[in-house]
Structures are given as structure tokens and as C-alpha cells.
Amino acid sequence: MKMKILVISLLLTVMCLSVTAVSAADYNITNENYNKYFDASGRILPGAINDGDVLNIEGTLNNKDLTINQSITINGKSKGKLVNGTIILDNANSGASVIKGLTIENTNKNGIVLNQYASYSLITNNTIKVKGTDAFSGYSLYGIVAYGWTLENNLTDNYIYGSGTVPYFYGIYITPFDAYWSEGDANPQNYIISGNTLKIANDNDYAAGISMDTVLDTIIKNNKIDVKSKKFAYGIISTDSYLYASNLEPAENITISGSDVKIEGSMVYVIESFLGTKLTIDNNNLNGIGDGVYGIATYYTEGANITNNNITTLGGDISSIGYNPDSIASGNAPITLLANSNNILISNNKIKSNTYNIVNTTQAQQVNQSNNTVSYIIDDNSYSSFFDDDGNLLPTSPITTGATIFIANLSNRNIVVDRKLNVYSFDNNNKISNGSIKITEDGSGTLINGLNFISDSNVLIIDSSNDNIIEYNKINILNNYDGSDGGWLSLSGLVVKGDSSRNQILNNNIYLKGADSSNSVYLYAVDLSGSGSNPKDNVISSNTIEVDSGYYGNGISIANLYNTTISNNKLYIKGDSFAYGVYVGDYGSGKTANNQIINNNIKAEGSIVYVIETFSAKNTTVTDNVIFGYGQAVYGYAGYDAVGDLIKDNKIVVVGNDTANTPFNYDALGTGQGGIFYKFSGNTTITGNNIVSIYTQGSDYGIKIINSTNGSKDDIYNNILSSDNGKRLGNTAIYTDVLTETILTATTKAITQGSKAIIKVNLKDKYGISLFNEKIELTINKKTYTATIDSNGIATFSIANLPKGNLTANINYLGNSLYSKSSISKIQVVNPKKFAKISYKYVDKKVGKYIQRIYTIKNTGTKVGSISGTLKIPKSVTYIKTQSKKITYTYVTKSKKLMLKLKDLAPKSTATVTVTVRLKK
């Protein structure tokens, strides 16, 4: 160790002297001026470049190496490129060099090489692509390789790609031997390998992401490593292959942290430690797929902390691997500790594997395991380790209640879930082919998430089980049975049966396709059929469902269930003979009630179509759905023996061609055409729907109700309706044998004989909703009048020539096919005609030599009156003056006339005027 420190000091001294000798300069190196700075072998020409200089690579250098023996910076500035050229940091004189921003694309040549003593350098942000071909005459290819004693080099944020066919392929390789495999002066040490992306694919026997031989004090962190090999594949290796060398120490103090490592091959070692001490492996995502896979494998490793990693291994049959030269023999385990590996901590790891043996400690000592979470992967290779041939869990299975399992590729295998489990797909590409999963009562509370089924028969069954969640699964059922042998077939994507409650079927994608056939092949996407005490509260929501059947197709079918919610689903159902979008029925249980069909988009196509049907169901709610049906005979919504339905705010379009041209129909509703159809049902509310029924033959209805139950009171209002090819609009598109009650109200005002009487009438249904465009009849004074209710809900009658008195107006609504008739009576008051009657009288009063004649004028009539008159003053008197508070007057002297005017004298009112005169002598 003392010798090592002395050599390092000498290296530092040489480097410092060399860096301070000459001022730094920038050079632009191009393919054309390369020979100005380098000889034919790639070495720097004497005096051409000094320590501290910057070489900017411009454009592409073709078939030119750069062998560096000075401390310089090589900068590609993200555009500079070497094609079939290697950069070599040749010795200690190249220490503290920087290689950055370059692209290196080589065939059968290494990318960057660090020879012995090349230290303290930074290699960052480079893209290195190395391809090997059959013409390669060597043994190994490297993206970056460091030979001999090198130290404190930082390899950060590089992109290293390797591909082709060579015996050995390494992304990064660090070894204590020099390029000629002579023993180096000391261990490589103090590397930081961080933030790199390595992708190696070797179509030959061996590939590794990062490999280190006898390295000390090195940190490997935050790298992304993806390695594939035809035979042996390694992610990160720390070995001590050359421990026998006299001047080397054992590999020690290696940290592997925060990296994503994905390895695929025949025999896979995601991380391997061979003859090391003080190993830390933490916070990594480790994934291995192969015939044999080790997530972490140690051999004679002393002191290792394996903590907080996500480890996933998917192994197979190791017999196909053949000879394996690795000291850690072929096998399968997420973690295996061999050859007296000692003092190992395994804690807080999340482990997924298809092997029964998760941590192999048979050859290890002092292993402390705590807080690790284990999930099992089930595939064709591991199935028999956990299940018997019928799909039941083996008594020895480590899968316990509450466990999580992942399903990889399975073929012709069934699984019976008899305990609460969390079941996920291993990845998006895995498939369950011709297999099924059944959840029993003891499996209640199970989660099935993200599985991909491809089958010709039923795949998911919930049998008398509760509180299960089936979500984000893909179900594809393809079956070619055509019934030509006289038999029949019924298939379902997902079946819920028995006394099953509170199950949730969410966000699944379900597709069923059957053979083109006129025979009995029945396809159901989701089929819930309850039995037992009280199956209820199941939810079917946000699924995408498509059924394509040559005979009978059904999207969602529920029977004998209470309070089921069917919401936000998208359905397209095709059945050449029969197509049902959603079916809600009861087969004698009497428990089918309070089910809800809300906000679905349902399209059904066939010869006979029921986009939604209810059968013997109570209190079904159907709201905010988009309903479309196309065929020969189409009902948008049809109910048989349905009671208490609420059909509200749906958009319904049905298009039919000819109900007579259809197959024999066993459905009790019969064959017909219309937006909404009820038979033997009652107490239905239909409101706010927009319904269009288009039928080539005509005479169809938007809403039709027949054979209603006794005492039924249906409420149908505020719907927008069109049927009979647009000939029946609004209420004329409704046929019902149960009429809605109506209520008439009217207002009148007293009038005087000779004025017109204005009578206003309003018609409402029993819910207080005004009706429009209905005709109202009114009879008064032995005459009958007719008016139509306008857009404001008022029918207005204007009647003249009524006699005086309190007259009775009889008002009638005659009703129609939807609304019942109603009538009321109102009194119209007609007061006698008013007139004014003016009379007057006077008295004379003598006041001294004057005479005052006082006139009193009175209106004895019933109407406001006015007068205008003239008083002649006799010649025997002299006019003096006139006085009055209400009467205006004017005296004309010449004619001796007094002009009087009185305006608006109310009935029974009086006015006085006093005229004063004097007698002539």
C-alpha cells in the first residue's frame, strides 16, 4: 500500500508540472487537418498540442485514432464524430483529460481505451456505438475499457451501444491487467460510473454491461443497463479473478446504487460479486429473463448489504444452457449466496420471481433477512411448483392469503383462487392462452388487474364470491363452433354467479367473436346470474365491450341481482339473429330490483335487436345513455313485466327495416319496432328523452305501452319524439293504454256589459308540468269556443256580447292517447252598462240689493258625467259675479250669457254654482 501512495504522488507531480508549462489553446480538428496534429498511428505530433489544450472535433473523422499522451480536452460539442476511430488515453501523461460531447461509431473497434496510469479523467456525455461482425478477429469488444492501474476516472452520462456477433461484448470493462494481459502495478480504484445508458446486444455467447476485475472503492450509480446475449448475459460484475497476483488486493468497497438493470439471455447474472468484500447493492431495479436467472449472485463475498432493491427474475429450464464456465453454476433465484458468502444483510427488497426458492442461503453464513416483500410469477415453467393440474394451489405453496402474484405467459392452464390474492400481469406482452381464473368464496377480496386472455372458452369466473375487483384486463374469446352438429354453445368473457355481492368489473376490454352461423351459438361479454340469499351491489363500469356473433350476441346480462350499477360502458353488440346490449332479468327469484343503467354508450346491430331489455325487474333506472339500434326489428328500450322504471334523459335512435323478415323469436316481448316499448308493465316514468324511431314500413311509435297492469299510472312528459318516418312528432308519437291525469285552471275578470271577457286557461299534468299545443273547449251563454294552448302554456278566450249577470263558463280538455280528459267551471261576472244622469235645482236668496241664485247640480246615474250649458241673464238685472269650486264659467257681456262647464262628475256627486245679480232701478 505504501508503494501505491508513492506512485500516485509521483503521478500528481508530473501532471501538475506538465499542466503549468504552457498556456492552453483551442484547436479545431477536422478530417482534412488531422495530419497537422497527429501521425498516421494517431499519436500527437511533437509540439503540436500541449497540456491543457482543447481539441474541438468538427465534422466527422473517418478511420482516425486519437492516442493521447497529454492532459487535454477533446470536445465534440455534440456534433463531432469519429467513425472507426478509437480514443486512447495512453499513460499517466494523459491524466486529467476530458472527453466529452463526442459520437463514436466503430465496427470491430473499441470506443475509448484507458491504458495503465491513465487517471483522473472525465469521460462524459459521449455516444459510443460499437458493432461487431463475423470479420472481427479478436476476442472482445468494449465501449470503454481501462487496463492496468488506473484510478479516479469519472465515466458519467455516456450512451454506449454494442451490437453484433463477437465472442465477448462489454459496455464498460475495468481490469488490473494491461492491454497485453500483463499484471498491472496496482488495483484500479476510485472510479465513479454514473448516469450512463448502456445497451448491449450480442448474438453470441457473452455480453456484459459493466464488468470490473479486482477494483477498489468504486461507485456505480444511476445507470441504465440493458444487455442481451445468446448465451451468457451479465448486468454488473465485480470479480477478483486475479487475486493470486502478488501486488493486488482483494476487490473491496463497491457500491451499486440507483441503477436500472435489465438482462436477457440463456444464463443471466443481473449482478454478480465474486470474491469481494464490503459490497453495497441498494435502490436498484434489477430484471432478469432467461433459462437460468440470478438477480444477485455472490461467491465468497464478505460483508454485503442488499437493501431496498426491486428484483425481478423470470427463469426457465436450465438444462438447455449447457456448459457454464462461471464459478456460480447455472440456476434460478432472485438472490443466491454461495461458497461461504458471509455477513450478508438482505432487507426491504421487493422481489418478484417464478422460482420457488427466493433467497438461496444454503452455502452462506450469518445472513440477516428482514422486511422483504416477495411476489411470485406464474408462467408455464413455474406453474407446477404452485398449482396442481386442476389449478388448485398446492398445500406446500408459499402463496398465502393477501399475497401478490404476477401472471406471465400461460398456456392451457387454469387457476383457482381460494384465498384473497392480488393478481397482476407480469408485463403488457404476457398472455394467458386458453386458460381461466376462477375465484371461489374463500377467494373473496381478490384483485385481478391487467391480464391478457386469449381463449376459445370462458376465462374469468366469480363463483359465490364477494368484494373482488376485476379491472384493466383484456379478454379476447374467438370460437369457430357453428352448431352445425345440432348442438349449442354458450360462452362468456366474464361470469359472476351464485351468491356474489359487491364485485367491481372496471375498465376492462372485452371482445368475443363467434362463427357466422344461423345455429345456437350464444356469446355474452359479461354475464351475472345470481342465486342464494341476496346477491347485490355489483358494479360494471367503464368497460369497452364488443361482441360479434353469427347468431346471438349479448353485451351485459344480469339476472336475479339487486342494486347493480352498469355505468360509463361502451358497447357494440352484433348478433346476426339476435342482439342485446344490456339485459336485466329475473328468473323467479323476485330479487331483481333497483338496478341502474347510467351514462353508457350502447350500439346493437342484428335482425332482432333489444338495445336494453328488462324482464320481470323492479325499479330499474335508465338515465343519460346513448342508445342506438339497427336491424330488421329494433327496440331501444323494452320492458316486460317491469314495474317502477325511471327512463330519463336518454338519447335513443333506432332504425328498422321489416319486422316480418326476422327469425323465430322466443322473447316474450315479441318482435317489433320503437324507441321505448312496454308490455304487461306499469308505473313507469319516462321523461327528458330524445327519441327517434325510423322504420321503413312506418306506423311505429317513439313510445308504446300495451297490456298495462291494473291500476298502473305511467308518467310520460317532456320528451322529444319522432316516429313513423317523421309523421308522428311529439305526443302523437306516443301510444299508451294508461292515460296521464290532467288538471285545468282558469282565470276571469269582471267586466261591464258591452266589454269583451278575457278568460285564460292553463293545462298541466298531475306533476304540474304545463302541456302545449292542446285544444281547450269553453262554453258560456249557450255558445262553445275553442282555443289552443300556446308556447307559454296558456289558451286565451276573448268573448264579446255577453249579457249582464254571473255567467258560468264550462271549460273542457278532451284528452288524447296520452293524457286523460278534464274539466272545470268558472263564473264570469258581467256588470250592467253604466250611464250618467244630471239634474239640477236652484234657490234664490236676497242679500241687500243683490239677489243670489244658487244652482245645485247632481249626477243621479251610474257613470261619470259632464255638462256644458248656458244661463241667460235677464235684462232686468245687472250681472255681478259667479262663484263655484267645481264648475268653470265664462260670462259674455254683450249677450249677457253665462257659459258653464262641469267635467267628470262622479255618480251620486253634486256641484254648486252661485250667480249674483242686482236689480235695476
UniProtKB/TrEMBL annotation:
<dbReference type="InterPro" id="IPR006626">
    <property type="entry name" value="PbH1"/>
</dbReference>
<dbReference type="InterPro" id="IPR011050">
    <property type="entry name" value="Pectin_lyase_fold/virulence"/>
</dbReference>
<dbReference type="InterPro" id="IPR012334">
    <property type="entry name" value="Pectin_lyas_fold"/>
</dbReference>
<protein>
    <recommendedName>
        <fullName>Right handed beta helix domain-containing protein</fullName>
    </recommendedName>
</protein>
